[in-house]
């Protein structure tokens, strides 16, 4: 295995060291509260963080968490792969070594990142309890935070209950309403706590 100083001096480790820097940057943004909007935007517009198994288990986590953990694992495993492959396979160019290590590290890191996200999502407390929200937020207004919401597809809105708690819920417009873009206000017609979704109308 390479020494600590050799890790930083080898050209083939640059991509993996950069991945660790991205992880540190994302972590810092979250710790200082500067990454909240980024997390929300990504999580709301593309739900790549969920698969049917996650939905069945009631597991949910933002994509920014998946990205941060992927970068962390990708950097660590990539550096280890570079060291192991480079020591055991002769005649490989730097490019070949980086490609081989990236392929192995990428596959393993994605699996580990998903497992880590599921673990954190189960351990960390949920933001808000949606039980009993229906009677509280029916008729209230919410602001669209996804790209848009339509009568055909769900988007996301934020809504505040009578106690001042903020919630993010899935929303779709009732028939006959026109598309509502991000930043505009809608009125909740009917909320379903089981699916954490609601039907809305344009409040313009």
Describe it for me?
With 204 residues, the chain is an alpha+beta fold. It folds into 2 domains: 4-123, no CATH class; 134-202, OB fold (Dihydrolipoamide Acetyltransferase, E2P) (Beta Barrel), CATH 2.40.50. The chain is 49% helix and 18% strand. It has 7 helices and 7 strands, in the order αααααααβββββββ. Strands 1-3-4-7-6 form a 5-stranded mixed beta barrel. A two-stranded antiparallel sheet has the order 2-5. The protein is elongated. 27% of the residues are buried. Mean pLDDT is 78; it is low at 35-59.
Q: DSSP helix count? A: 7
| Overall shape | elongated
Could you give a short account of the major beta sheet?
5 strands, mixed, barrel
Quote the average pLDDT. 78
Structural class: alpha+beta
Percent helix range: 40-55%
pLDDT below 50 for ≥5 consecutive residues: which ranges? 35-59
Strand content: 15-25%
Strand line-up in the sheet with most strands: 1-3-4-7-6
Task: State the distance separating the first and last CA atoms.
Answer: 63 Å
Rg, rounded, reads: 22 Å
How many separate structural domains?
A: 2
Oligomer: single chain
Number of strands: 7
From N to C, what is the helix and strand string? HHHHHHHEEEEEEE
